[in-house]
Amino acid sequence: MSAHAAAAPAPRVRATSGVLDVYRAERRKLGAQVAIRVLAVVCALAPFAFGAVLALQSSLPADTLLGVWVHSSGYAVSLVVLGFCGYLGFPVVAGILAGDVFSSEDRYATWKSVLTRSRSRGEVFAGKCLAIFVLACGLLALTAVSSLLAGLVFTGDQATIGLAGNLVPAGEALWLLALSWLLSLPPLLAFAALAVLLSTASRSGIVGVVGPLLVALVMELLALVGNGSWMHALLITTAFTDWHGLLATPRFYAPVLIGTAASLAWIAVCLGGAWLIVRRRDFAGPPMGRGAGWVRPARAVAAAAVAIVLLGLAGGLGPAAITRARLQASVAAVFGRLTLLQQRELGRYVSSHAKLDQLTGCYRHAARSVGPGDDWSCTITVLTSTTAAEPLQTSVTYELSVKSEGCYKADAPPSFVGSQTMTDARGHSVLNPLFVIYGCFDTTSVAPRPRSRGRGHGAPTAKPSPAQRARERHALHQAEQQAGPKVMQEIHEAEREERHNAEAPAERAPEPSAR
Question: Domain range for residue 230?
Fold first, then answer.
């Protein structure tokens, strides 16, 4: 052997080779599990089943955000699926995917054999987490593509209505939909990291699998507590709603940045805690006994209860996210755009720069006019110019359910806005845009000031007194009695005429006689 060959250094093994080896092994192990395969099949077929059920029935999931538009646009179908996944689907996926990856090594006492294969604890931990995150990204992409295809197959690629009453064309809706699903990836990985922490801390697959779902339910309840914005912004479930700002006009991105930063913080804290547990654990001793007692579980439950109480008390910290000024501005803008859209669908000429002259006042019935709740009401007064000194006023009151992230659903009395469907200028039965209104506003923006008018009219800024509410209810009842039967009669006559035209045979023109 020459001196040059003897002096040549031995080739160095890359530092990442051990992590990749563990990743490949864990990926094969996870792919071979029946639960993971069933989960992948559900992610691929469940959106098609949802779309088929919607196609076979006439009822609409109106309580879900954008649910009333699932028969009008296939993109709305995918957005409804995304909303459900953020509520329950993704925590379940994270628990099934990551809840038993580490605890299974404790259950089968295989840590000794794993750590003696020339792989360090850090490489094993990083490889397992990498396999979990890659499969989580794959399942999210599979669900997104499946929901999009289901919407296009069963409904079509028509334009959809955004969360500000704006019409979103098909091309724009496609890339907004893809970006919305992508924004759900950080909170999904945060729940996966939480499952890893629960799995390593408890050494129980049951805790690791069920824990993320329970935490998600607790976070949904905490979102209803308090009027502050600081605690709500730190919840993982809040980050699943960040895509709402993409469908608004104008778009707002502050919740996206806050939710992504909060999700990354959850990932760092959970994985850091799990790594400290794995690093300090003694795997050389005898396996953990089955009868560990009730002391540690009782302590864990007590600590969780204390944490929930503290978070509930912290719900009032920070500036109020849901205020009357923000809600009034959003409802007025959404109602104005949807009214103009309704008039265009009825075949009436509406200028592209037209704006509805209206006054909007919102308040809560049983509490101070701030914070989320199902007891909000908004009265919209449409002003029509006349030859008289005062404009003609037409009022309609919507009952609102407002969420902590700034989204709401508004229901109107049919006597004013008509039935759920209407006949457009081409004779087709379409959805009435004003029947159910969905909207979202930026809870981090500066609250707008109430609009004032030069004639002395202005949007109400104070909660009406009980006597004023009684007078408003009496006037509304009288208006419904006067306008309701006439409007409903016109609707029934139009529907009867449409059915008659559809059932009557087409009359053939007489053929000219040959001379």
Answer: 17-282+300-316
